Amino acid sequence: MRKLTVSDYADRISLHRPYVPTPLQGLTNPALVLRVLQELTPVLQKSGITDVRELDSDEQRTLLDSAITVIPPGYLSENGKSALDTLISAECQSQSITDVSELAPFLKIGDTKVVLWRGDITTLKADAIVNAANTIENHVMLAFQVIPRLKEGNNFEVVDKAIEVVKAANVSYTQTT
Questions:
Q1: Residue ranges per domain, the chain?
Q2: pLDDT tens track of the chain, all 177 residues?
Q3: How far apart are CA 177 and CA 173, in angstroms?
Q4: In 3D, which of 29, 126, 15, 10 has the Cα closest to residue 85?
Q5: Which of 80, 81, 93, 153 could pair with 39 in a Cys bridge, judged by C-beta atoms 3.0 to 4.6 Å apart?
């Protein structure tokens, strides 16, 4: 059984380091989509897609959404990541964003507010989002973040349930101070 402390996990994912995107200037959204799709050509060719220029811009954007869900971490170059960041930032500016701090909580655990949302999660401004369809590993990582906060609030029933999730995933939990 491997040991992973909350501090180790936070370090591994650079949790406390702010993310600062490097935007690309002067490109339209369709041009940004094409730039990322060009980097994904080997992945797309495995699916039988040989020339994305034959698709209209809406089809290209839909294809990009699908393709980025199946590529392994680290697949895109820095330029590809910048193009994707710029595209997503531009799209976010044109959408109505819901700040979760303005939503009524479904549950409060100490200072932690849990909100249930039915809708497009890409329109949420939130610290963390857990999709019920996510894998057990994602729930385990959430448990690593939640357990210390629950212990502070003496909510031991929920702590026990969170620890059960961790144990079910065959990962040991060690709290650090």
A1: 6-94
A2: 778 888 888 888 888 887 777 888 899 999 999 999 999 999 888 888 889 999 999 999 999 998 888 888 889 999 999 999 899 888 878 888 888 889 888 788 888 888 878 888 778 888 777 765 555 555 555 555 544 444 444 445 554 555 555 555 554 445 444
A3: 13
A4: 29
A5: 80
> Is the CA virtual torsion 24, 27, 30, 35 positive or negative?
negative
* Residue for token pair 């080997």: 42
Cβ-based neighbours of 119, under 8 Å, separated by 6 or more? 98
Distance CA(169)–CA(135), nearest Å, equals 10
3-state secondary structure 54-117: HCCHHHHHHHHHHHHCCCCCCCCCHHHHHHHHHHHHHHHHCCCCEEHHHCCCCEEECCEEECCC
Number of H helices, E strands in the chain: 7, 6
